Amino acid sequence: MFVRTAGERDLAAVRDLLVETWHATYDDLYGAERVTGITDDWHSLQALRRCLEMPNGEFLVADDGNRIGGMAFADAAFDGKSVTLRQLYVRPAFQGRGVGGMLLDEIIESFPEASLFRLEVEEANAGAIGFYRSQGFEQAGRTANCGAADSGIPALVFERVRG
């Protein structure tokens, strides 16, 4: 598995990964219909294309040469000192193999001027919470609307300061 910058040709495979991962993770919490609605909105090809084109952004995929096993997207504030990790997802079949850590390490290295990394994680996603804690992130707060202003998805806010 290697990590590389995503390109236009990867978007359909990234969307498939996000749909699969979201259904595997969140169907029991929100129901398949709501998860489909979220993925159709948040992970549409158009939404993913906007990530590719975002200034101060980094869009990565973990690729084994045959299949995209994970993806990550982050963007920096205008001063470059603060980075928000917007997405980091690993296909269920690739979880527990270090793919998430590889993606996170590469995101952090992609923003050498940044001193603060921030993310939101759904409160019920114990696996993701454990992963981020193991990567040096600490809970810094909560939000009632993970990912979008009106999502209604409660989340924990985590931060990591670069030493």
Q: What percentage of the residues does DSSP assign to strands (E)?
A: 25-35%
The chain-level structural class is alpha+beta
Rg calculated over all Cα atoms: 15 Å
Which series of helices and strands comes N to C? Answer: EHHHEEEHEHEE
Helicity, in percent? 25-40%
| Total strands | 7
Largest sheet: 7 strands, mixed
Mean pLDDT: 94
**Outline type:** globular
- The rounded distance between the terminal residues' Cα atoms is 28 Å
**Count of DSSP H/I helices:** 5
Question: How would you characterize this protein structure?
Answer:
By secondary structure, the protein is an alpha+beta fold. It has five helices and seven strands. 37% of the residues lie in helices and 30% in strands. It has a seven-stranded mixed sheet, with helices on both faces. Helix 4 links the parallel strand 4 and strand 5. Helix 1 packs antiparallel against helix 2. The longest helix has 20 residues, at 11-30.
Helix-strand layout with pairing:
Blueprint: E1 2-5, H1 11-30, H2 32-42, H3 45-53, E2 57-63, E3 68-76, E4 82-90, H4 99-109, E5 116-122, H5 126-134, E6 138-143, E7 155-161
Helix pairs in contact: 1-2
Question: Main traits of this protein?
Answer:
single chain; 163 residues; alpha+beta; seven-stranded mixed β-sheet; 7 strands; 30% strand
What's the short version?
The protein is α+β, with helices and mostly antiparallel strands and 163 residues long. It contains five helices and seven strands, in the order βαααβββαβαββ. The longest helix has 20 residues, at 11-30.
